[in-house]
Amino acid sequence: MAAGFNLSPTAIAAGFRLETFAEIGSTNALALQRAAAGEADKLWLVTDHQTGGRGRRGRPWVGQKGNLAATLLIRPTVEINAAAALGFVAALALRDALDVVLPRDRVAIAPDGGDLANGGRFTLKWPNDVLANGAKLSGILLETSGVGTSDVAVAIGIGVNVVDHPSGTPYPATDLKEIGSPCSAGELFFALSDAFVDNLRLWRDGRDLSAVRDKWLRSAAGIGSQVAVDLGGRIVRGVFETIDADCHLVVREPDGRAIRIAAGDVHFGAVASVRDQ
């Protein structure tokens, strides 16, 4: 068992539970195993040393000792497609938690000169990244099991670069230590467990995404800027206008057409302006 991880009183009162690990391969993989075995709702699996983490599209997520890897296993009474918005809920909760643990006198300035005014010190990069100083601080991965609405289980995996970050990544990365925060993985998780309660309530069991959408847009990175979205082989280029009622990305192409995108890798600024090779 890893020391230093605790749930907030608000999370405990809301029925959340916690298991911690000194080291683990993947918190998401274990959560899905537990789900298959009948594990109940609202279980956090947390470590500061994940050795086999993974990101979107099967990419490895490198987790150095001291970084945060946390997965929340929940069983929402919604269809799997509706559960996809939980990634936005997780991003909002993490952004709120970061605002608690980072010293208030620090101001984020994007290294590429981008505008962070809408999101303050931390911004949200569609669909599932949290940025600090314009660089990737965290990734969020949703994995599901079950069908219909009676046995759906969702593993919400959150990896945060607390003391170290990978180099040579397609998108610039950073960590909390680098930007001047002295907080530990345990301190960040405590704030995250607290913030998740309110943001999960905002989701209203998937009945209405408007509050989630509105709050997400207030912290969105890149609105009004040029983006390139990799759809797994096809690149869509244009201006990032908004996200729609289903939290899909809306890109206005040069010919004026609005394209709605459910999944893809987004790049901003100079990268978005490079023509396909």
From TrEMBL:
Top enzyme category: ligase
InterPro entries: aa-tRNA-synth_II/BPL/LPL, BPL_C, BPL_LPL_catalytic, Transcriptional_repressor_C
The protein's Enzyme Commission number: 6.3.4.15
One GO MF term attached to the UniProt entry: biotin--[biotin carboxyl-carrier protein] ligase activity
Reaction equations catalysed: biotin + L-lysyl-[protein] + ATP = N(6)-biotinyl-L-lysyl-[protein] + AMP + diphosphate + H(+)
Pfam families: BPL_C, BPL_LplA_LipB
Keyword terms of this UniProt record: Biotin, Ligase
Domain BPL/LPL catalytic: residue ranges: 19-204
Signal peptide location: none
Assigned GO CC terms: cytoplasm
PANTHER family in alphabetical order: BIOTIN PROTEIN LIGASE, BIOTIN--PROTEIN LIGASE
Record-given protein name: biotin--[biotin carboxyl-carrier protein] ligase
